[in-house]
Design brief:
Blueprint lengths: L1 H10 L3 H20 L5 H21 L6 H6 L3 H13 L5 H20 L5 H17 L1 H9 L8 E2 L5 E2 L1 H16 L2 H9 L1 H11 L4 H9 L1 H14 L2 H7 L1
Length: 240
Amino acid sequence: KQWYQRRVAITAGTDSQVYTVAPVLFPRLIQLFQTETFGPGTRARVLSIFATFTTLISHMDSVDNAANENLLFPVLPGLVDTTIVLIGTPASDKIDYKLQTECVNFLSKLVQTFPKQMGDKVSSALPVLWQLLTKNAEDHITTVVNNPDHVEDDVDSDGSEIGFGPLVQAIFEFIQALTERKKYKAMIRKVLPDVLFYLITYLSIPEYQMELWNEDPEMYVEDDDEDRMNYTVRTGAMEL
């Protein structure tokens, strides 16, 4: 894993190296990502590295029109199919959410960078993401909103939260990415009432929190500012 990170750092400095490195590195990265024997944390890191290359190559395309066509487009369809499968695979541990979150973030990047090429893949991803968002809304109310003993999500070695909360936030950002592209606005417009319903669900706050805020409005201002700094599920829903 450290070797891949060093390779990315070296490659990022020289565009010409990408044409040498990518054909060798991409098949290995994809193999690692698609192999179940590697843990979800490692596979999430591999996808993050691939996302770095995606950004680099998309920027190269401004001076080399064939960069995306030659380096990315041949491998992206299979890679995206795997990310959609992983997003739809039930999580058995919190670290699984890290992988799913990275997958959703990767899809968001592709929608923003290659909206034309992602058309069919978005159609495949939306039902999977929608099921995650709706299926877990009730659990969110039970385990977070109505649970005074709720414990915040764990943090990984990079200091990033891992759990269902960050995954929901990533899905919100994916929907936001769709609304910013004319090609996909019609998709969201068709389900807008349902989206709003679930956004309101994720906006819910615990009853004890409401009582505290009613008693001390200044605490509401302080807590709301802190939420916006930390980007919680509630603030993600509010922004969307």
